[in-house]
Please model this.
Amino acid sequence: MRNINLESYLKSELKDNNEENDELASVIKSIADATKLIAMDTRVTGLKQIRGSLDKTNVQGEQVQILDQISNDKLVDILAKNSSCAGYASEELKDPKIFNSSARFMVVADPLDGSSNISVNMPIGTIFGIIRNTDYGKSSFIKSGRYYISAGYSLYGPSDIFVICANNKVAEFTLDPQKNDYFLSRSEIKVPNKGSIYSVNEGNFSIWDNKIKKWLLNTKNPSGTSAKNKKLRYVGSLVADAHRTLINGGIFVYPSDKNNQNGKLRLMYEANPFALIFTSAGGSAVDLEKEILDIEPENFHQRTPLIIGSKSDVNNFLEHMTTGKKKVKENTEITPIFKWTSNSITNLRKSLNLSRTNFGKKVGVSRATVLRWEKDIVLPNYINKKALDNAFLSVKNDLIDNPMED
Ligand code: AHG
Ligand code: MN
Ligand code: MN
Model:
């Protein structure tokens, strides 16, 4: 399957030549053609004076970048001419555009993702989803991710690539500028089951819920013998951070916070497309508790927390979200940050260079209790674990003050 172009790939992938497949292939091709035109602009934003913003705010209340508008216009122009496209809705449009309400598919898009990175030449992209037209009108757009028949994105980076999920398979195409066509560069992409990279905007740490803080601290300071440190990578363009996570594995987290109670990323044209892609590639996509694809939208521009990545990394994140609830009968406002075992307690006492008596005084228990902990005869309770957390954090001078203390 090497080096076939997008059109031949779609013909071979969507092979049973029924009408729906032919029309789906044609809508995907139209979107790909629009991204080729956008790519021609992203390469020369500094020459065409298209780095700045318009004197206009979109429905999100965000200032519209020139390239946001240009990208949106290119998608509208091309899709309006495609008889299989019934309508188009995007981050840049307050309401959907209906072209031909009886046509088979609707397209949702974030025409230019990562706008804050345009002026500094960092990777940016276009994200899209394709939904069957079931209601023949605007309500067709308010559907859960389960209704998406295809999704994909382009990433305008060192290479201009186009990633498509069709038939539950995820493939990557690279734009050959000479031929101005996309050629297959990765087929049947699978997310590694575990990764060594975490991707999150740590600048929001102070406005996160404690469970998110706990996840981050445990990610930065993994406990347990086999634990290895992870690397932090954060571009600030969802398409770039998501694509790296799709290929290398690991986890991308954009949680809710005090400023964005429902998260920052938009469900319909950022979260759902990546949820379909990651799920089809054997990865996971959740909000703080359930699969993104199961979220029933109320309005088109609604936001959601978005956690995508390797199955085991996402499950580890979810465990941090449910710990408090599972132990709802215990003293839940004291959620320990770290797991404490006989081994780690002994290591902590030795790193503090304290006798069992003095260590007991530091964490508020008797010498005998310390001995029972270290002999694995009894486990510390919640209050003890909190005291052990504090004792541990006091030695970690590379860590900030204990964030659990309000
Ligand atoms: P957009 O440019 O379409 O508005 O999307 C920007 C999003 C997304 O690309 C990225 O993951 C996120 O904003 C970064 O947000 P922070 O700058 O708050 O980290
Ligand atoms: Mn975006
Ligand atoms: Mn955008």
Q: What stands out?
A: Residues 91, 110, 113-116, 201, 236-238, 254, 264 surround AHG (ligand 1) (CB under 6 Å). Confidence is low (pLDDT under 50) at residues 325-334, 398-405.
